[in-house]
């Protein structure tokens, strides 16, 4: 592992007026370990190594959150972020998502302005902020689902100063059209990896043409999704990893970052060693021929 690992190696992108390094960090995994000191160490180390784009959600919590794992007292990702990093560095951009929520009813999806506002306020409270840098509207992508109403309500909260920039998540191109007719969109966050959800092969460049960041999740997990990292790598990927003295996870991240300057990586981990490996992947350069072998 090089001694000078830095999240700056893969370059930067602007989310509206906020500049972020393309190699960021996803906070969904930091609640999995009951040892909160480890989570705090991972978050501080990420920032120390140049990460200035964190992805989170108020419903990232253990036990009982998205991952449904863990034991002991409830640990919220947002509260760990606050404990680890507040007062926040000036260049730190925290992206969160609303739509799904957890309350005394269990998981629910916000369908009213009041529910969305309360999710925004919950993020503000947990993070200890007076506004949120970027908020994604995360939908369930049911057939024919429109986002106009919900995105419009979030646009009103943006106008009111609670949100700086808006994005959308788990969406199709028609949702980007709908959202952009209402307010500026700085990012699209979808599930996409070298071997999953390649239906976004045309959506990804479309985002680039419109100056919108494309932020894939599950780049390492692939088809295993919440369960953990996939080990189902092609021979070509394993060969490339060996040739670069890298791990398959690093090649997956490098492939992600090579899909366009507007593509931002947000690998998630609660493991300090994986964090360094993932940030180091930002410096991996793959040739056109190598990318072609990966398909
Ligand atoms: N918008 C949405 O609907 C949505 C949905 C899901 C996730 N997200 C966001 O996207 C982020 C990324 O997704 P993700 O965290 O689920 O998936 P990921 O980054 O693709 O993979 C994370 C999984 O891989 C493991 N891992 C991480 N680095 C590794 C390495 N170098 N070598 C081996 N294993 C490694 C992690 O376990 P360890 O902890 O043991 O390292 C974890 O099990 C999330 O953290 C979250 O912020 C958004």
Structural class based on helices, strands and sheet pairing? alpha/beta
CATH homologous superfamily heading: NADP-dependent oxidoreductase domain
CATH topology-level fold name: TIM Barrel
Helix and strand pattern: EEEHEEEHEEEHEHEHEHEHHHH
Number of helices: 10
Strand content: 15-25%
Instruction: Name the ligand types.
Output: NADP nicotinamide-adenine-dinucleotide phosphate
The largest sheet has its strands arranged as 3-4-7-10-11-12-13
Note the main sheet. 7 strands, parallel
Low-confidence stretches: none
Radius of gyration, Cα only, in angstroms? 18 Å
The level of helicity is 25-40%
CATH structural class: Alpha Beta
Q: Do you know the CATH architecture?
A: Alpha-Beta Barrel
Assembly type of the chains comes to single chain
Averaged pLDDT, please?
95
N-C termini distance? 27 Å
Number of strands: 13
Number of domains: 1
Shape by Cα distribution: globular
Give structural notes.
This protein is α/β, with parallel strands linked by helices and 295 residues long. It has one domain: Alpha-Beta Barrel (TIM Barrel), CATH 3.20.20. 34% of the residues lie in helices and 19% in strands. It contains 10 helices and 13 strands. It has helices at residues 36-48, 77-85, 113-127, 148-159, 173-180, 203-209, 235-243, 248-257, 272-280, 288-294, and strands at residues 12-15, 18-21, 25-26, 53-55, 61-62, 75-76, 93-98, 100-103, 106-109, 132-138, 163-169, 187-191, 213-217. The strands form 4 sheets. A 7-stranded parallel beta sheet has the order 3-4-7-10-11-12-13. A hairpin with a 2-residue loop joins strand 1 and strand 2. The longest helix is centred in the middle third of the chain and has 15 residues, at 113-127. It is globular, with a radius of gyration of 18 Å. The mean pLDDT is 95. NADP nicotinamide-adenine-dinucleotide phosphate (NAP) is lined by residues 26-29, 55, 97, 138, 169-170, 189, 217-221, 228-229, 247, 249, 266-271, 274, 277-278.
């Amino acid at each position: 592992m090089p001694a000078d690992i830095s999240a700056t190696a893969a370059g930067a992108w602007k989310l509206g007026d906020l500049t972020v390094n393309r190699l960021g960090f996803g906070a969904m995994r930091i609640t999995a370990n009951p040892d909160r000191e480890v989570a705090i160490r991972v978050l501080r180390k990420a920032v120390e190594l140049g990460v200035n784009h964190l992805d989170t959600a108020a419903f990232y919590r253990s036990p009982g959150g998205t991952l449904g794992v863990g034991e002991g007292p409830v640990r919220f990702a947002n509260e760990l972020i606050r404990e680890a990093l507040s007062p926040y560095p000036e260049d730190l951009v925290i992206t969160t998502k609303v739509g799904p929520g957890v309350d005394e009813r269990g998981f629910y999806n916000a369908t009213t302005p009041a529910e969305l506002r309360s999710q925004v306020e919950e993020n503000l409270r947990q993070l200890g902020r007076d506004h949120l840098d970027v908020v994604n509207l995360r939908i369930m992508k049911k057939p024919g689902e429109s986002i106009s109403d919900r995105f419009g309500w979030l646009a009103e909260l943006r106008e009111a100063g609670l949100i700086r920039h808006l994005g959308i998540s788990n969406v199709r191109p028609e949702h980007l059209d709908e959202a952009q007719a209402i307010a500026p969109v700085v990012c699209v966050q979808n599930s996409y990896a070298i071997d999953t959800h390649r239906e976004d092969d045309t959506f990804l460049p479309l985002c680039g043409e419109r100056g919108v960041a494309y932020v894939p999740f599950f780049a390492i997990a692939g088809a295993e999704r919440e369960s953990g990292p996939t080990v189902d790598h092609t021979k070509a990927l394993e060969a490339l990893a060996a040739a670069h003295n890298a791990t398959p996870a690093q090649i997956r991240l490098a492939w992600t970052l090579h899909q366009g300057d507007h593509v931002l990586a947000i690998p998630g981990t609660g493991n300090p060693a994986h964090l360094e490996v993932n940030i180091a992947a930002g410096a991996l350069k793959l040739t056109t021929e190598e990318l072609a072998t990966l398909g």
